[in-house]
Design goal:
single chain, globular, alpha/beta, about 40% helix, Rossmann fold, about 325 residues, binds NADP nicotinamide-adenine-dinucleotide phosphate, two-stranded parallel ribbon, seven-stranded parallel beta sheet
Amino acid sequence: MRILVTGGTGFTGTALVRRLREDGHSVVALDYKEGLQCDALRAMGAEVVIGSVTDRAAVERSMRGVEFVFHLAAAFRELNVPNSFYDEVNVGGTRTVLEAAIREGAWKFVYCSTCGVHGNVDHPPAGEDAPIQPADYYQRTKYEAEPLVKALAPASMETVILRPAAIYGPGDPERFFMIFKRVARGSFPMFGSGRTLYHPLYIDNLVDAFMLCLPRGAGNGREYLIADEHYYPIQEIVEEVGRALKVPVRIPHYPVLPVLVLGHVVEKLCKPFGLTPPIFPRRVDWYRQNRAFDITRAKRELGYAPQIPLDEGLRRTGEWYREMGYLAATGGKP
Ligand SMILES: NC(=O)c1ccc[n+]([C@@H]2O[C@H](COP(=O)([O-])OP(=O)(O)OC[C@H]3O[C@@H](n4cnc5c(N)ncnc54)[C@H](OP(=O)(O)O)[C@@H]3O)[C@@H](O)[C@H]2O)c1
């Protein structure tokens, strides 16, 4: 098939493009900026179109001849932008990509949403029908695109919505890297009790789930939470990272509320000057928001079966950070 992956040069996009190419599909990746990752994708045999999902002409260029769309591009890590940027990219961009897919006659559209649409999970584990309660502009805009996809897609087009949990693995540029970096230094400051639940998702397990959406009829009209088999208190995740790296780690505890207040203040102060805040509420939410999910629906209906457990996933991830020299560098960022 000729398949478009928006956000194809991102962490998840790259892994998906690689697997699709290995399976013999013709792949186009649409992404924002030219960069090293574009060359990596070209080396895999994918085409790369540079342009924003908000740019209709660029989206149409990338859509030529496309039969199947994985829509992954999202404003996600951008910090020093107005909140409206998230609406433009995550909601407006999804509309633009979907409309172009409809015009091109693509038969299936898979939208990569997030487990974050459920915000803090009050009664863990949450299934797909748990309350939708996005807690920030990222989660809100990711959710708003879900009903849009269902409403705009014609009857002739299949749609699937995947809500991945916390993705990690080799190539993860940010969240788990921060845990690894601190653990490698031997100390991880824990704000709060450390009992907050967190649901990891190893990148290969997520790619398996995407691939299960390829056959006709698979998951049509449904949304699915995708996560690893188990969820954990965040303290256990930090300890497991220590075991993966084979380093002893101290975990001193501090109260979370002052950091949260500080995060709000710092974010407000940085925004007018276009500065990237060193601390902001979304980051602090990691210590506070319960994220634990029930993946029964994906198992039953898609045949999803996460293959890589946490210890193995963390071991592979740590190895990759070490090979790339990221853990040796102080304060370095992949
Ligand atoms: N990481 C997680 O834990 C997680 C959890 C749940 C759901 N998700 C979802 O999974 C998807 C992939 O996330 P990821 O972790 O792989 O993030 P990522 O590495 O930041 O990938 C997102 C990609 O989208 C691209 N992009 C951003 N804005 C764009 C625009 N306007 N036009 C075209 N491309 C644009 C980015 O390009 P640049 O790099 O050039 O900016 C990047 O390549 C996203 O939809 C995200 O919401 C992620």
